[in-house]
Specification:
The complex is a heterodimer of chains A (338) and B (244).
Chain A: H1 5-20, E1 31-35, H2 41-44, H3 60-66, E2 96-102, E3 108-114, E4 122-125, E5 143-149, E6 152-158, E7 163-165, E8 171-173, E9 178-186, E10 189-197, E11 206-214, H4 254-259, H5 263-266, H6 275-281, E12 317-318, E13 324-326, E14 329-331
Parallel strand pairs in A: 4-5
Antiparallel strand pairs in A: 1-2, 1-11, 2-3, 3-4, 5-6, 6-9, 7-8, 9-10, 10-11, 12-13, 13-14
Chain B: H1 2-15, H2 26-29, E1 36-40, H3 46-49, H4 65-72, H5 76-81, H6 91-94, E2 100-107, E3 110-115, E4 121-125, E5 141-148, E6 161-168, E7 173-176, E8 180-182, E9 187-196, E10 202-211, E11 220-229
Parallel strand pairs in B: 4-5
Antiparallel strand pairs in B: 1-2, 1-11, 2-3, 3-4, 5-6, 6-9, 7-8, 9-10, 10-11
Classes of the chains: A alpha+beta (338), B alpha+beta (244).
Chain lengths: 338, 244
């Protein structure tokens, strides 16, 4: 080839043109991202009210199973890790980290999402491999494959373990649930939209879109989480499973009693997700009393630190009858011993 | 020669459509079709978006003390009397409302976004709009640009991209219907993405940042999603309502 200058030029031209072919789109997602809990703050921060299924398209089966839930369930060995699953990911109060795993040729073999909010990482394979047999191993992070749609990474998760959807209210997800994730990074913001489907517990896809912010100080990820421990000794080895029997959940009408919400909205009927529902309840919905007069109400503006309830700097707010929250958490009452 | 080839390659890539001439108008250059009817899915913050929360219920919003004082004094009757019943329908509040959007091109350089909730119209100007002489309105003045995937590189392949818009000149209004304020100094930045699912469903996701030096301690960041509807059969315009 050294003796053929023309061929060398042709080779160079080809190389230049190949370099000009778009690499769709290969945005570097690497980094740590912190939560910005400006949506669903109560659920992601201090914890949701029992019996609040607003915003959910639940099937009758999903609703019935959710109403069996008590807060003691996550304290049992078998269920302590269910909140650290992909279906709860968008509702957790902590950040996460994304990194890439490379193939020998330097291409991205997989994008991986990990953090305190996931018992198993979500590993999004980018090499076009097929999803395994339905009978293959199911994990909390599922099995995921991804493709780039422009600057958005779209992943499809299957093979998820039975878990919950949302945080701390018992909405179930079956092991047939699937989740599509759209991840778009721009500047220091990461938008993650998840579309979850479940043939048993949802009547239509459950859509959530969140904003996360790049965190140069990093966030913990891949540390061992969900080391199960016995939180309720009296239940150990008894075979007792905490639950409410059908029709006996005392919180089933909590949102009706406390916030005057229509029962069908609190119980997660799909029709309540759309604008026409607002028009349906016009004239019958009565706003509740002022937040400060209602208990519990959680009237806080926001929380200052991830996972730690507190009012914004210089603000104080009602934490629902338990005390007053200042910028750094609860302010003790004058008579309270610290 | 090498330099010439590099220049040639860069030029071809920048055009984004092979040897074709660059599109003449923003409408023709659109990397994504946002037109049509879209419905908000209120699957987040339901209690604060679908119905009017009670006075003092400010969860999630990084407001400051001045904002809290104003919101604590929220009085919808006073707003009605002052002809300010659309305060919660200014752009930053409107987009979180239970609304349908009808998106069309007003002309080759202006995208129009109408809401049936409050019957508002937002105009997104891809070219510098006419000066407004300081007038502030509920929907303000929005400038827009396409953000091409991969920075605009690509030859002959399908185009991908999104829209970025920045809205200023806003008349003071409410971020939430129960009186959480934003000021005339607010800058409302939005990133509009469209995602198409395997089954053909399409979702419009509006990632947005409200920056207000007067009433917010930090930028208020949310993402709002809408689902594409086949037609306008459910379009139901209703006027502003200060109470519900």
């Amino acid at each position: 080839m050294n003796g053929i200058p023309g061929l060398r030029v042709v080779t160079f031209v080809c190389a230049v043109l190949v370099a000009g072919v778009p690499a769709f789109a290969q945005v570097d997602l690497t980094g740590s991202y912190r939560t910005r809990m400006y949506e669903d703050y109560i659920e992601r921060g201090p914890g949701e009210f029992m019996g609040n299924f607003t915003g959910m398209p639940l099937s009758d089966e999903g609703r019935a199973k959710a109403l069996l839930y008590t807060s003691n369930q996550p304290s049992t060995y078998e269920r302590q890790c269910l909140p650290q699953s992909a279906g709860v990911f968008q509702y957790r109060p902590v950040g996460f980290r994304i990194w890439s795993e490379l193939a020998p040729d330097g291409s991205v073999l997989a994008w991986v999402i990990g953090g305190d909010n996931l018992r198993n990482d979500i590993r999004i394979w980018m090499d076009g491999r097929p999803h395994p047999s339905p009978n293959a191993l199911h994990l909390a992070g599922g099995f995921a494959t991804g493709t780039w749609q422009g600057d958005t990474l779209t992943a499809r998760l299957t093979h998820l373990k039975t878990a919950w959807i949302r945080r701390g209210v018992g909405i179930p997800a079956s092991d047939h649930t699937t989740i599509t994730i759209h991840i778009t990074r721009r500047e220091d913001l990461l938008t993650m939209t998840t579309i979850q489907e479940d043939p048993y517990y949802l009547t239509e896809p459950h859509v959530v879109s969140r904003v996360w912010q790049w965190n140069p100080r990093g966030t913990s990820a891949d540390r061992p989480i969900c080391n199960t421990a016995n939180e309720i000794p009296r239940l150990e080895d008894t075979g007792i499973f905490p639950h409410y029997l059908p029709g006996q959940n005392p919180e089933a009408d909590y949102m009706v009693r406390t916030f005057n919400l229509p029962k069908e909205a609190a119980m997660g009927y799909a029709e309540t997700l759309y604008p026409e529902y607002r028009k349906k309840i016009r004239g019958t919905y009565v706003p509740p009393a002022e937040c400060a007069a209602r208990a519990p109400g959680y009237c806080c503006g926001w929380i200052e630190t991830q996972g730690r309830p507190g009012g914004a700097p210089n603000l104080t707010c009602n934490d629902g009858g338990f005390g007053t929250l200042g910028p750094r958490g609860r302010k003790p009452a004058a008579t309270e011993q610290r | 020669m090498a330099l010439a080839l590099l220049v040639l390659s860069a030029g071809v890539g920048a055009q984004g459509r092979g040897a074709q001439a660059p599109p003449a108008t923003p409408r023709a250059a659109a990397p994504v079709d946002m037109t049509g009817y879209w419905v908000a899915i209120i699957s987040e913050d339901w209690r604060w978006r679908m119905v009017t929360p009670s006075r003092g219920d400010y969860a999630s919003i990084p407001m400051n003390l001045a904002a809290q004082k104003l919101a604590d004094a929220w009085d919808p009757a006073r707003d009605e009397a002052a002809g300010e019943q659309c305060r919660a329908y200014g752009a930053p509040g409107l987009m979180r409302g239970p609304t349908r959007l009808h998106i069309t091109w007003l002309d080759d350089t202006t995208l129009k976004v109408e809401s049936d909730y409050g019957m508002q119209t937002r105009l997104f100007h891809f070219r510098t709009p006419a000066p407004t002489q300081g007038a502030k309105t509920w929907q303000g003045v929005s400038t827009a640009q396409w953000v091409m995937a991969g920075g605009g590189r690509g030859r002959g392949a399908a185009r991908f991209g999104s829209m970025k818009s920045v809205t200023t000149q806003l008349r003071p209004g409410y971020l939430r219907k129960n009186g959480v304020p934003y000021s005339a100094e607010t800058v409302f930045t939005e990133y509009w993405d469209v995602h198409t699912e395997a089954n053909g469903d399409r979702y419009l996701v509006d990632t947005n940042v409200v920056t207000d030096p007067v009433y917010l301690q930090l930028p208020f960041m949310t993402a709002i999603h809408f689902k594409k509807e086949p037609d306008g059969s459910k379009w139901d315009p209703t006027p502003c309502d200060a109470r519900f």
